[in-house]
Amino acid sequence: MVPRSLFRLILCLGLSLSGITAHADESLYQDLGGRKQIASFTNTFVDIVIHDDRIKAFFVDANIPRLKRLLTQQFCQLSGGPVVYRGRSMKKSHAGRGIRDADFNAVAEDLQTAMDQAKIPYFTQNRLLALLAPMEKDIVTKE
Fold first, then answer.
1. What is the reported pLDDT for 71?
2. Computed from CA positions of residues 143, 91, 132, 52, in that sequence, does the dihedral angle turn out positive or negative?
3. From CA 75, how far away is CA 29, in angstroms rounded?
4. How many CB atoms are located within 10 Å of the residue 28 CB?
5. pLDDT tens digits for 25-78?
6. Cα gap 45→142, rounded to integer Å
7. Rounded to the nearest 5 degrees, what angle is found at the Cα of 122, between the Cα atoms of 117 and 127?
8. DSSP 32
9. Residue 87 has what DSSP assignment?
């Protein structure tokens, strides 16, 4: 697992060196295992997040089944699958929540853990993370 303080630097450096660009095509959706596999690792991911002492306070009042459904939609759509994300924008969903860089990185680490458990290859994980990384600007509160 990548330490929190280095996650973003390594991700950006690794993506630029490997030639990964932040756009999806259907191959990523297929490489992630399609909707069924994405839903499976997303459910694991949310279960990890809601028990992670670093960030679980953000999810105390969350509707967990809805969160799992919306994240599955989001990951499917981002990865080029035939699914439409029906949730709010990241900016609206996270406004006023006081999310810090460390919180964002903890969530990213938890997603990596869930994908590791699902045996998603590291290269494929990075392709999804590259699509999620730009959302930081809409999620993290800048002071």
1. 94
2. positive
3. 9
4. 19
5. 679 999 999 999 999 999 999 999 999 999 999 889 999 999 999 999 999 999
6. 25
7. 115
8. T
9. S
pTM for the full predicted model: 0.80
User: Which of 71, 69, 70, 73 lies closest to 84, judged by CA?
Assistant: 73
- Residue 37 backbone dihedrals phi, psi, to 5 degrees: -70, -40
Query: What is the arithmetic mean of pLDDT over 103-125?
Result: 94
28 within 8 A of 128, measured Cβ to Cβ: yes
- Residue 37 CB-density burial (10 A; 0-12 exposed, 13-18 middle, 19+ buried): middle
What domains are defined for the chain?
4-139 (1.10.490.10)
Find the radius of gyration of the CA atoms of the chain: 14
Report d(CA 47, CA 87) in Å as an integer.
19
